Amino acid sequence: MNTLMITDVNALHTAADILKNGGLVAVPTETVYGLAANALNEQAVSNIFKAKGRPSDNPLIIHIADLEMLNPLVKSIPDKARLLMEHFWPGPLTLIFESSDLVPVSVRGGLSTVAIRFPSHPVIQSLIKMTGLPLAAPSANTSGKPSPTNAQRVFEDLNGKIDAIIDGGHSSVGLESTVVDMTGSVATILRPGGITEKMLRDVLGEVVMDPALLSVDAKATPKAPGMKYTHYSPNADVVIYKGDSQKVVDAINKRLLEDAQNGIRSSVLCDDETKTLFKTTHTISLGSRNHPNDLAAHLFESLRCFDDLGMQKVYALAFSEDGIGSAIMNRLEKSAGHHIIEI
């Protein structure tokens, strides 16, 4: 299969026809690029899992382009969910509801619940409206690799495995959506993202973090994407260093020296404030700590750049977990397989 690259976002009819006929199209969203298919077509959904190499018990998010599309997909809409929808939809927020029978079991990962998002990016909104279909769309990458934030990274992973890629430039948020379970008495964050815990609390009052966010239990059943399996990993081994900043710098520099002596290609993931402190020519900065949204937007692309450089090891600084920093560290810790060294 030759994957079609669509560079004119004003001519989406070809992509819409592919989706209506059960095909797969990588589409830009404000979070990351998604691999879209008709969410109600079981064969199309199966092809998403096949193209990505994605475990079948990892549920998919369904994307809609107006609130009328939500009702047939869910059993009910709790009042607290309506509040969040009013404040954050369209945008980088996924809500989990009790699913209707209309949603294929494969989309739900075998669960009774379904994850729904109303994205703000105009391209995916247009596609949904043109097709009249809810679109299942996990990140458009090989399962386990860093999520793509531009069309070139999608092409590198999925060329020949999907029908088309729409080039809509770089994703603005750069991390997947916040996922909140609305099926219990208290809204529960299953995956942190651009809509932060504080933002949710400001609307609802009580919000809790799911304990599974701190677990690496391979036997756990994932209720939302990204709660299980290794994720966001470059080919290099990633290790996170936490603690006193000067001691962390010294410890990483010691490892860099040892790696150089042993012929191991290693590098550092850091910020603008520390990038000159490391004894390597391949330091990659996510940006300034004073601009955490920039750090988030650059994380996945930076992890992919280490592969471009042929790195074998990456030493990453820990970042503040305030605000969107919680989402940054969630992704970074998964990319490191929770390999963290406390200094």
Short description:
The chain is an alpha/beta fold. The chain is built from nine helices and 16 strands. The protein is globular.
Any descriptors?
single chain; 343 residues; alpha/beta; eleven-stranded mixed β-sheet; 16 strands
Structure description:
- The protein is of the alpha/beta class.
- 29% of the residues lie in helices and 18% in strands.
- It has 9 helices and 16 strands.
- Helix 1 packs across helix 4 (122-131).
- 48% of the residues are buried.
The largest sheet has its strands arranged as 1-8-2-3-7-4-6-5-9-10-11
Biggest sheet architecture: 11 strands, mixed
| Helix and strand run | EHEEHEHEEHEHEEEHEEHEEHEHE
Mean pLDDT: 94
What is the helix content? Answer: 25-40%
Write the layout of secondary structure elements.
Layout: E1 4-6, H1 13-20, E2 25-27, E3 34-38, H2 42-52, E4 61-63, H3 79-88, E5 93-98, E6 113-117, H4 122-131, E7 135-136, H5 151-158, E8 164-166, E9 178-181, E10 187-191, H6 197-204, E11 207-209, E12 237-242, H7 245-261, E13 266-270, E14 284-285, H8 292-308, E15 313-317, H9 325-335, E16 340-342
Parallel strand pairs: 1-8, 2-8, 4-6, 5-9, 10-11, 12-15, 12-16, 13-14, 13-15
Antiparallel strand pairs: 2-3, 3-7, 4-7, 5-6, 9-10
Helix pairs in contact: 1-4, 8-9
